[in-house]
Amino acid sequence: MPLPPDLTRPSLVSAAQAPSLAEQADPQRLYERSVQCPEAEVDFLAATFHRLRGRDARHLREDFCGSAAVCCEWVRRHAGNTALGLDLDPAVLAWAAAHNLPALDADQRRRIRLCQTDVLTAPTDGGLDLVAAMNFSYWLFRERALLQAYFRSVHQALTADGVFFLDAYGGYDAFREIVEERTVEDDAGSFTYRWEQARYNPIDGSMDCHIHFAFADGSELRRAFSYRWRLWTLPEIRELLREAGFGHVVVYWQGWDEDGEPDGRFEPTEHADADAGWICYLSAEKG
Ligand SMILES: C[S@@+](CC[C@H](N)C(=O)[O-])C[C@H]1O[C@@H](n2cnc3c(N)ncnc32)[C@H](O)[C@@H]1O
Q: What pLDDT, in 10s, does the model give residues 257-278?
């Protein structure tokens, strides 16, 4: 039986007025918390470049930079480091300018430049020690010719001993239409990150993926981020890198900790287990 109006109104009014956690959330912040760890990534980039080239890298380009989290971490690391971030989307670059650049000091900000451009048409005049393309963003190029054109342009943009770094994921679960989730702890309250592989076409390798977020009050941000990309395999990626002119291509694989979880330490290897799901880095050396 419905309650009299004077009893229902206050709770209805307050329910209508209180925005849900999903309504209050900033999707870009949730994305960073869920799938990025710029400190670990920059550790890997700097140490691996040094191991490969016997010198420190100073000039980084972050392709598909989004909120430029890696650029920001890079310029924090050393007073001689410079970073150039490229992204097609003006909204995400504006978010970076409003949220991430202000956390840098004036000198660090002077050494970072964000540019709204297609990575395929970015200037390729050399001079970069490193180009990084992370979180599988280059998979947005679904045709072989296009991915090869991108790899060639990166090769041209690098200095004579420059190195291109990228990541990849795979394993037999990567080809399945599934949803995986995990809890992410955040100062603003924990939330659930959901990765959905919504559609996979084995004929052309194309895949639709979505990122959803769910909150303690039951609210959800569905399809906060969506991608249509090609699920490239490591042999294809390595072949295309070599065809684009890269001399030495290395795959870095994670080991396991005592609890049977990936240990976050990526080491070069030519052989790996046929795991259900894996993430790896690649380096491709110019020259
Ligand atoms: C998956 S996000 C990557 C964000 C971040 N770099 C990371 O590692 O998580 C992909 C980004 O690539 C951008 N993007 C897509 N196609 C692009 C292109 N052709 N050139 C430059 N940026 C592009 C999108 O705007 C989006 O910000």
A: 888 888 889 999 999 999 999 9
Give which of 199, 205, 197 is closest to 181, Cα–Cα.
197
Instruction: Domain ranges for the chain, please list them.
Output: 29-170+231-285, 172-229
Distance CA 204, CA 196 (A): 19
State the distance from the centre of ligand 1 to the C-alpha of 180, rounded, in angstroms: 22
Residues with CB under 6 A from ligand 1: 35-36, 64-66, 86-89, 92, 118-120, 134-135, 137, 140
Per-residue pLDDT of 227-248, as tens digits, reads: 999 999 999 999 999 999 999 9
Q: Tell which atom from ligand 1 comes closest to the C-alpha of 86.
A: 21
- Could you tell me the distance, in angstroms and rounded to a whole number, from the CA of residue 227 to the centre of ligand 1? 10
Query: For residues 146 and 135, what is the distance between their CA atoms, to the nearest angstrom?
Result: 18
Pick the CATH number of 29-170+231-285 from 1.10.3470.10, 3.30.310.250, 3.40.50.150, 3.40.50.720: 3.40.50.150
Average pLDDT, rounded, for the chain? 93
Please state whether the predicted TM-score (pTM) of the whole model is above 0.90.
Answer: yes
Structure token pair of residue 45: 């980039």
